[in-house]
UniProtKB/TrEMBL annotation:
This is Membrane protein. PANTHER family: HYPOTHETICAL MEMBRANE SPANNING PROTEIN, INNER MEMBRANE PROTEIN. The chain crosses the membrane at residues 21-43, 63-84, 105-138, 144-166, 208-227, 248-267, 279-303, 324-344, 350-371. InterPro entries: Bact_Transport_Assoc, DUF418. Residues 229-389 form the DUF418 domain. Keywords: Membrane, Transmembrane, Transmembrane helix. It comes from Brevibacillus panacihumi W25.
Length: 401
């Protein structure tokens, strides 16, 4: 089997740039859940003790970051699925067996991440949803589009119906979770490792597993859209699609403006709907996540079409090429800080955001250094070796100075 890495000339650098950009958004979105027991806090997603600056930052997150980046990652996973399968097929490899093994390894990474580090893991969800993608590989574009748009409209339609509910089911559930907040703070700040793991196994992980179905449903249509557009050649022949990309850019911008504007109007109670303000914000955060996902992706693709901008954005590509390693590293850093300095529930969102930006700059520097010496990121290398069942050379033959 030809297990050699994709050559620099064959790499789709704009995908790496988009992945790197998405990782910046991912760490910002995940930061509050790293530092606070958000799973058991009210739906406003604010720390127990917060300042007005935290409230403004939460508003900005809801408008421009929350749900906007897991959608990008999901879209890219679908595109990556097609590229992996297509390249394997061109080499005459057993594509279904390879991809199934690839998903099993990803599931293993995800479960280790979920159980031993952090309840917000997305890798195991991607592995589960990825199994369904195998069924679509030989389906027509019409079939793929029909399923993608049907699932997307169905899920978002159900979410929009929440705007008609006069009460907030989530807030009613949170009333009985005040004790869990205290237990979480004690376990994360003062508990030894067995107490920490005991709390997570008893309360956090069962909650995640019980909601797995609702995590897969919104991800699958984004997988399908990424898969479909990659199969059409969007990333290999981007120049041919530039007029269409510009139309999507304008359309997504036009749709995003009113959806994003609704978030502060509801959050500050300028507008009142039949539902609670928190439910209204939740719905419009989700809807704007889809439109801004399209806006962010097309913006980066248009920028990458320009040589000067492509060079400017290349630092993001270093992080994007090691997306799996950098994603898990972000968890290690924040979990380590919490355990080492006993700061769970004590850090403001503003301080957390500053830490995220510093960490991401360090990840750019570290990823560039690593990729100058090694072909893959460390977890990407393990993933590839286990997928192909063979040890693949990691170190580059000639180290770049």
């Amino acid at each position: 089997m030809n297990l050699f890495p994709v050559s620099e000339g064959d790499r789709i650098h704009q995908l790496d740039v988009i992945r790197g950009f998405a990782l910046l958004g991912i760490v910002l979105v995940n930061m509050p859940t790293f530092l606070h027991p958000m799973l058991f806090l009210p739906a406003d997603a604010l720390p127990i003790q917060h300042t007005r600056a935290d409230e403004w930052l939460r508003l900005l997150f809801n408008m421009f970051i929350q749900t906007k980046f897991y959608t990008i990652f999901s879209f890219l996973f679908g595109a990556g699925f097609y590229l992996f399968m297509h390249r394997a097929e061109q080499k005459g490899l057993p594509i279904k067996r390879l991809f199934a093994r690839r998903l099993w390894v990803l599931l293993g990474f995800g479960m280790l991440h979920l159980i031993f580090l952090w309840y917000g893991d997305i890798l195991h969800t991607y592995a589960i949803a990825g199994c369904i993608l195998l069924w679509f590989y030989y389906k027509s574009q019409k079939t793929v589009h029909a399923w993608a748009w049907s699932l997307l409209i169905f899920y978002q339609g159900l979410m929009t119906l929440l705007l008609l509910l006069p009460s907030d089911p989530a807030s009613q559930q949170m009333e009985g979770k005040a004790g869990l907040v205290v237990m979480a703070l004690q376990a994360y700040n003062e508990g030894a490792w067995p107490q920490w793991m005991g709390f997570r196994l008893a309360y956090e992980i069962p909650y995640v597993i019980s909601n797995e179905f609702f995590a897969v449903i919104p991800i699958l249509p984004l997988f399908l859209l990424g898969f479909s557009l990659a199969r059409q050649g969007l990333f290999h022949r981007t120049a041919d699609f530039l007029p269409a990309i510009r139309r999507v850019w304008w359309t997504s911008l036009f749709l995003s403006l009113p959806l994003v504007a609704m978030i502060p109007l509801l959050q500050e109670s300028v507008l009142v709907l039949p539902s609670s303000a928190d439910t209204g914000v939740l719905v419009f955060v989700g809807l704007s996540g889809l439109t801004l996902c399209g806006f962010y992706i097309t913006s980066l693709m248009l920028l990458c079409a320009d040589e000067a901008w492509r060079k400017t954005l290349m630092p993001l590509a270093f992080v994007g090429r090691m997306a799996l390693s950098n994603y898990v590293l972000q968890t290690f850093v924040f979990t380590g800080m919490v355990r080492l300095f006993h700061i769970y529930g004590k850090i403001s969102m503003l301080t957390g955001a500053i830490i995220c930006l510093i960490l991401f700059v360090l990840q750019i520097i570290g990823s560039r250094w690593w990729l100058a010496r090694y072909t893959y990121g460390p977890l990407e290398w393990v993933w590839r070796c286990l997928t192909y069942g063979s040890r693949i050379p990691l170190r580059k033959k000639q180290v770049l100075k």
